[in-house]
Amino acid sequence: MPVYAAAALASAWAAVSVPAEREANWRLGKADMLISGGQAEEVLRDLPAGSRTTPYHDGETVVASHGGYLIREYRAVDLADHVNDGAYPVRAGRPPAAAGEVAITAALATALRVGPGDSVRAGLPERRLAVVGIVDTPDKLSREALLVAPSQELSAGGRRGFLVQLPPAAAGWHPPLGQGRTDLGYLLRDSLGPDPSEQALVAAGIAVVVAFAGAQVVLLVAAAFAVAARRQRRELGLVAAVGATGRQLTRIVLANGLVLGLFAGALGVVLGVLTAQVGRSWLQRLVDRPLAEEGIAAWQLPGIALLAVVAGLLAALGPARAVARAPVQAALANREAAGSRGSRRLLITGLAVSAVGIILTTWAAQPEVAGVAIVAFGSGLILLGVAACGPAMVGLAGRLAGFLPTAVRLAWRHGARHQFRTGAAVAAVCAATAGSVGLMLFTAADTRTGSATQLDARTGQILIPADVARLLNADQARMLRQALPVQHLQHLTVADTEVAYANVAPQPGPPPVVSQTVVVGGEDVVRAMTGQEPGQAIRNAMDNGQAVAFYPEFISDGRLRLNGAAQPRAIPAVLAAAPAYFRDRSVLPGALISKETAALLGIRTRPGGIIIDTTRRPKPDELATARNIVLGAQAQASPTDVPANPVRLIAGQPDNAAGPRLGPIALLLALVSGCVTLIASATAVGLATSELRSDLSTLAAVGAGPRITRWITAAHAGLVVGLGVPLGALAGVAPAAGVIALRPETAWKVPWPAVGVVIVLAPSLAVIGSAALTKSRLVLVRRLT
């Protein structure tokens, strides 16, 4: 199984890993850089002689679909220009060349059910476009996008720039960023590959996974070899009785590991490569990029097969040494020699190794060190140390078994008598759980930190900017009210002034970036911003011509300052604190003044956006209907009123609403860990049951019921997973903590469903499955005397 998995993963990795040059072609075609921004044209004058350029514009637009309107990407590029070769391969038809023509990606063609010769309605404002071609965007095959000819933009906003191909003599030229060029961005071809830190992180992750998987294999196979060697005690004793040395007995047992390793390696490689070839289409959909045609290197497959041979030899090494040391008389009598007290030494060694791993991981995770390899090595030491505690934990469980029912007592004491074999199964479950929990915690770590977690509105609140609000007619506004659970719908009036930050900030550090807009209104605005009824003090203040600030950073000495078209002035103000620092500047205000105050100060006003307070968080279908109404208003607007970019309708969510990302990797890890837990427990139970047949026969002779076998197997499985899963979960937190500490932009987010599969569902299935699949019939066997 591990060789099969390694061969399949190696083949898949070879197909997914494409050369950096090809990946750059997917992003930039044959260009050496993309220059964008308002000052991009100025840079063109500084290009080396012989450079080729082609215009580039990407943005978002509105597309009419069968169910309404969608927001999709679009690009205005010249697909016929050789600078774009490789970036947009044409599947069918031809590139767009004139006004009214469009090429769409294969994903969008599937979604809209159109092809060359059909037409789509898209753009701001909406227009009908003839589909002349189907293209791919290789850097993301699932992208739903439209491509039009240059100067045929579908919306006024977006990023404008130029693709630049340098002459060979000017390779390595960079655009000058000085001379006051602040509105300039560029993407270089040689910057598209992974940086060294990312490569080191991936290498460390692969090393940890390989080490964990190898440990599981060796531990599980070692347990099986231990039982096989014990069942061959008499035969090996006869070989020793006729003059075989301990070294020869060792070689006999090691030969078993060698033969099984060779067979498993060959079979695993063949099946793994076949699986990778059959699953190429599925893999391409998973990675969302074209797969490389190159296969894996010829030396890699024998190397992967060699893993099985090494694992077999390592697994057979312990049983082989035990056979060589066993007394010949005990082997001929098929008696088991008394166990050693090595578990105590192993426990002490494991604790020491874990302590060293914790120290290394903590030290390497510090920002001034940031050693990815050391973190991986320390994490491996922690796992190794925790796994080494397994035999001692099994022995402790055997001592506590005297207080438990007969079936549990028999199973646990049998496991304690063979604590190294049972401890190997515990360690295998521990390794699987640790690897899965650690990688799941890291992949689910949220990359949002600090103020980035602040949302744009209160929970359930919906914001519509002013440039979109003015496009809604009476029918659309009525449909919007019907589509959403509206409690209050507030049309804002914006003052021609802004509120200034106070000179003295109430807290250390720079002030938060919040809206400085001033609106003209009354108590409804306070209710929309704070979610509470305004108190009597706020009502009195507004009646007396005072302003209301929604953030304390705007008030100093009981006054706030207004800047803008009107004469700058400071007026008395009170605080009605918003529940969070809302980022939205297009709708939400920072301060409020009454109509009378605006008139007294001579402040002009204009229509603003719309704040919709809902009775509850809108359901997805309700929000989709509302979005369709708003997008329709934008698409049907006149060219003079249409917004530069399509505006999305988003409902505010609580800070804790954004849970961890449960991607396919986390779910796959949970599945793999669950399978290993089931296999390890089944292996341990099967080996124990094969040795307990004589004891079960004795129980049958004294009148035990047939269900005793099921209870014993369930208890043995419970011992294995009950010790392995908690130890593994504990050991898995360490590598996740170390890697997350290396990435300051990450934060802890626990994917509880996936973790629950690993630490609750899989162990429960292991215990229940062991009992359900065990034959309850007791068989009488003859004891050897």
From TrEMBL:
Belongs to the ABC-4 integral membrane protein family. InterPro entries: ABC3_permease_C, Macrolide_Exporter_MacB. Residues 209-327 form the ABC3 transporter permease C-terminal domain. The keyword Transmembrane applies. This is FtsX-like permease family protein. It is found in: Cell membrane. It is a multi-pass membrane protein. The chain crosses the membrane at residues 201-228, 249-276, 296-317, 346-365, 371-401, 422-445, 665-688, 717-742, 754-773. Keywords: Cell membrane, Membrane, Transmembrane, Transmembrane helix. Its main location: membrane.
